[in-house]
Amino acid sequence: MTARSRTSGLLLAALAAIALPIAVGGQGKSAFGLAVLRRDGVMIPFAAWNGRAWSTDWPGPGASVDLPISIADVPKRWWGAPGPAVHWTAWLEDRPQPLALERPQQVPVFCGTHLGVKTDYRSSGADPRVPTVAKDGLAIAGDATLLPIVNVSVHTEDAKQIVAAITDDFNREESTAATHFVNWQHPYGDVARREYPIELEAFYRTHEKTPGGEWVTNYVEAVRRFPARPGDQGCGLITFVRGWVLVRDGGKPVIDLGARITYCDRADVSFMQPFGELIIDREPYWVYQLSSWRDEVYSVSRVRPDAVRPVMAVEGGTCPRTEANRGRGRGGGE
């Protein structure tokens, strides 16, 4: 996202005061590894923590490496700091469960392949018609504890408050995104655009408790829809905005948003799938996937009361950006 951090003049005291369950994991100095766990039972490792720093040791998509015959044949360095002998746990939406590794396996992801590991996890199966496989959760090597990220209903009073909080920033980012085009002008001006409502589509939250203080971390995805015009083929323009709202009791919320103007087919728009939160050296980190119609990225971001900063962003797979898969979206701003 290219949005800059800023503070909003609207104080969300009610959000900051919400009492969510608080739990603090004990990891920090112990090494552990992370992998996305796909619905077809294949996990793809993407990050490791050695007690001091993050690393990416597992081969990425399209890597020119030989497929190991068995788990024992996987080079030790690919596992990163945890090593090959550590136990794995599947952290699913409702519960953690032990995870056994069966064999290395090459899997298609978008327009390429990625080396994964087939596990004993069994789910409802994957849809072969889609270019990637849905993720059911996160797999962790070692003793790290994954804490939940709350999925807040977009129909709650909290959702209405968060929309009110981001409205000014939404409008500014939308205006900026509308200037990022060559030989194209938005058919609706600033004043006309603001006659259409902002609709919240995703709302995730954690309550942080650290030695440095307490605050609420919110992640939002919101849209403003415009009627289809002649030539839009029934799919009108939208403004898609995503980003962070950090609320500390007694202070102004810090709002960091990015906007993209596109059509309702949402070409090149990325959506978040949160996996959970880690507490490392008493600092919170969100673990999540960002995915669009043509790519996916596995991310870890450090959360602080004044900013959220990615520390790992690992490509999971992609397709080339061409006119065919770009759709009609005139993307700009994110």
What does this structure look like?
The chain is mainly β. Helices cover 10% and strands 42% of the residues. It contains 4 helices and 18 strands. It has helices spanning 13-16, 157-177, 190-193, 323-326; strands at residues 6-7, 32-38, 42-49, 54-55, 88-92, 96-99, 101-109, 112-119, 135-141, 150-151, 199-210, 213-225, 237-247, 254-263, 271-280, 283-291, 295-304, 307-318. The strands form 3 sheets. Strands 2, 3, 4, 5, 6, 7, 8 and 9 form an 8-stranded antiparallel sheet that branches. A 6-stranded antiparallel sheet has the order 1-14-13-12-11-10. It has a 4-stranded antiparallel sheet with strand order 15-16-17-18, with no helix packed on it. A hairpin with a 2-residue loop joins strand 7 (101-109) and strand 8 (112-119). The longest helix has 21 residues, at 157-177. The protein starts with 5 loop residues before the first strand and ends in an 8-residue tail after the last helix. The model is unreliable at 1-26 and 323-333 (pLDDT under 50).
